[in-house]
């Protein structure tokens, strides 16, 4: 089995020394890569800038990228041959419209940046998804969480969507623990306990594998 995993943030350059980024550390995505490899899968881990080292497992190939466009190119290159797609990356929705070739100098009291929309990696790949391929997305919502996650699942052709909780202390960006809820297209909901990201990853992987090979 071959798994394509996106992880970490993306950095969108503004000038040679600055970028727009986000607080994703890559921990959840890297834990998923390790958990899939532990089950014997071959993993292509397309990672945005993360301070985590490349996972040591020989089953994991780590491809380092910076921008959403680079992440899309790297993911597209392996998507057709992957059986499972997991989109754990926190992809920047927008990037600066112009990348200055020289460092932007301080001038007026205000500075307005023009941003343009980035490619939706999961949404675009979803359009070429084959019926036997299995896709998993992530979402973090602050209002109408279940409805918004359900809607994203449909729009991006996900088989499962993992909803990150914002309500629980110890969950989310930078923490070693996470609390998630998993939804499927039929509206079935699985609530995970607050636990280490490694345990969340193992639980998600066994849930995904069970969906791939349903017991009669
Ligand atoms: N995603 C992606 N490419 C993007 C944006 C998001 O692949 N340019 C993926 C994420 O990795 C995640 C899922 O899509 O698995 C949902 O991401 P999210 O940011 O919640 O969805 P958006 O469609 O960007 O909606 P919004 O940020 O407005 O809630
Ligand atoms: Ca987004």
Automatic annotation (TrEMBL):
One Pfam family named in its UniProt record: DFP
SUPFAM superfamilies tied to this protein: CoaB-like
GO BP terms in the entry: coenzyme A biosynthetic process
Domain of life: Bacteria
GO molecular-function term, one example from the UniProt record: catalytic activity
InterPro entries according to UniProt: CoaB-like_sf (IPR035929), DNA/pantothenate-metab_flavo_C (IPR007085)
Signal peptide location: none
Domain DNA/pantothenate metabolism flavoprotein C-terminal stretches: 2-209
Protein name per the record: Phosphopantothenoylcysteine decarboxylase
Organism, scientific name: Hymenobacter sedentarius
């Amino acid at each position: 089995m071959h798994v394509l995993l996106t992880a970490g943030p993306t950095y969108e350059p503004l000038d040679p020394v600055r970028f727009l980024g986000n607080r994703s550390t890559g921990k959840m995505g890297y834990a998923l890569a390790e958990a899939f490899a532990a089950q014997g899968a071959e993993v292509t881990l397309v990672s945005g800038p993360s301070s985590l080292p490349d996972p040591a497992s020989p089953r994991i190939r780590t491809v380092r990228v910076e921008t959403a466009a680079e992440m899309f190119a790297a993911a597209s290159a392996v998507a057709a041959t992957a059986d499972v797609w997991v989109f754990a990356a926190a992809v920047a929705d927008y990037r600066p419209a112009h990348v200055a070739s020289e460092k932007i100098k301080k001038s007026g009291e205000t500075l307005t940046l023009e941003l343009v929309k980035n490619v939706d990696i999961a949404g675009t790949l979803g359009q070429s998804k084959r019926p036997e391929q299995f896709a998993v997305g992530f979402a973090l919502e602050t209002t109408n969480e279940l409805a918004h996650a359900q809607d994203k699942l449909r729009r991006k052709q996900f088989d499962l969507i993992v909803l990150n909780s914002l309500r629980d202390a110890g969950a989310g960006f930078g923490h070693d623990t996470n609390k998630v809820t998993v939804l499927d297209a039929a509206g079935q909901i699985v609530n995970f306990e607050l636990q280490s990201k490694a345990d969340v990853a193992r639980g998600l992987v066994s849930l995904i594998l069970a969906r791939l090979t349903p017991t009669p």
